[in-house]
Amino acid sequence: MAAHDSSWEIFRSELKHWMEMRRFTNKALAEAINADLPSSGLSAPVDEQIIKRWRHSTSPPLMTLKVIGRILGMSSDPTGRATYDPTHLPRVMGILDPAPENAELIEAAYRLQTVRAKIAEAQSTLTAITADEGAVNVVRAAAASGLGAAVLPVFEGPRGYPMHVSDRIDLRAQGAEATAPQPNQYPLVHDALHDAFAVRSRRAPRFADTSLQPNPDAYAAWAVQHVGCPRTSAVDRPHVGLPAIAITSVTTTPWPDDVGDIVAMVLGYGFTTTRELARELVSDPYAAEPLRADIHDNFLYAATPLCRVWTHHSAVVPPANDHAPFGDAQGRVTSQLLHFYVREDDASLRHAAEHPASRLDPVSPEELDAAVARTRATRAELDARFERVQDNPRIRRIDYAFTPEAEDRWALVFEMTLTILRRLDELGVRLDLTELHERLARTEPQVAPQVLRWLADHDAPFVESRHRTLH
Predict the structure, then answer these.
(1) What is the spatial distance between Cα 457 and Cα 465, in angstroms, rounded to a whole number?
(2) Are residues 304 and 392 in the same domain?
(3) Which residues have C-beta within 8 Å of that of residue 93, sequence separation ≥ 6?
């Protein structure tokens, strides 16, 4: 491109704007570029006169654009509050195509996750792989990457109904002085964890004898979940009167993903979370509140995924949507969509603040107080918004009282599942799930039989009495 092309006029305009925004003089920018000369594509250092000419007439090599953009922290947000976007400058100059709209990204992420789930399901069917395959793949990847891996299967559930809910995996590097391995340092491990929908694990101790408990700074703890992770739909079309189900909450303390997955399992529907969909697009889905809110809004009306249960949690109310999380920005909801708002008590919000997602180190008292205040404010706003829609029979509230014991928390998960199934029955939804449940008991033997047994023992609709506990 010639220096007088419109693309370079745009470059000069951007350069002037961002230098003023970041308070960079010509001399300061020249020094910063020279400090990273090998990456700049320049054959010799630059001085402030060259920077001045770039601002008014001449142009740098194309390779230098990346260095300039990074130094000045350029992004699509002209106020400078957004994180650095390495594609911003090439896009506005016309070198790269414009970025896709959020809705396109969300659809792409949804399709990608569905394809990955179908591939995993096909592999399981074709090779008789057990529910442990995700953990097995992580261990294989760790061994191939020179890491050690220890696996602990976890059996939990309501009292008397144990399920294989997850596999905890400890990854460690070799050597006495080694620190906890990070997945981005080991591509094979990163991909295996991603494909298994693994999450960071904070559960400790892992051994009854505390003398055997390893140094927590030396290993990375992960969990491959068998309950609460995405699944594909087992039915070809939605049940009459039930296109989809949404479950929302302020935090993940009530284990809404486990509720959603179990409900989906019983109905033969697919399951996903806005967090997992965001993870297809960004490195840290926990920090991507606006993106997750957009995904949820899209699902409510514009792109409701049929035959699916999805969950969405958010500690903040989207400022651009007065109807969230019960309607999109225009207040619209897909006809017959069923929505459950899990309303948490103070203890639940405090537990979430004490154990923030994706963070394992302790929070300070100041951070704790701020987080609790923020989530209480969000809950109050959601309560007020629910009051405006409570006459809608397809939007219901489930009150949740936190309890710290795992057995009791699982009991609450199952009770919320029962509440949802009973609401379907009250709305007149009629389902024959006999064949589906027989297949579930065969294909998911470590989870489904216990789920069906508990539901049958508690007279759940749509679950036959023959699944009850035999006395």
Answers:
(1) 8
(2) yes
(3) 7, 8, 10, 11, 65
Inside any domain, residue 405: yes
Residue 75 near residue 82, CB atoms below 8 Å: yes
- The SS3 call for residue 199 is strand
Exposed/middle/buried for 381, CB within 10 Å: 0-12, 13-18, 19+? middle
Whole-prediction pTM: 0.74
Q: How far apart are CA 365 and CA 386, in angstroms?
A: 31
Q: Report the alpha-carbon distance of residue 231 to residue 265 in Å, rounded.
A: 8
pLDDT single digits (tens) 12-35: 999 999 999 889 999 999 999 998
For residue 214, give Cα distances in angstroms to 150, 176, 180. Answer: 11, 12, 11
Residue 417, both tokens: 């599942």
Which residue's structure tokens are 């602990």? Answer: 152
- Whether residues 327 and 428 fall in one domain: yes
Same domain, 300 and 436: yes
Number of domains in the chain: 3
Kindly report the backbone phi and psi dihedral angles of residue 247, in degrees, each rounded to the nearest multiple of 5, phi listed first: -125, 120
pLDDT, tens digit, 9 for 90 and up, residues 237-260 = 999 999 999 999 999 999 999 999
Beta-strand runs (E) in 44-162: 148-156
Angle, vertex CA 232, rays to CA 228 and CA 237, nearest 5: 125
Tokens of 396: 């219901």
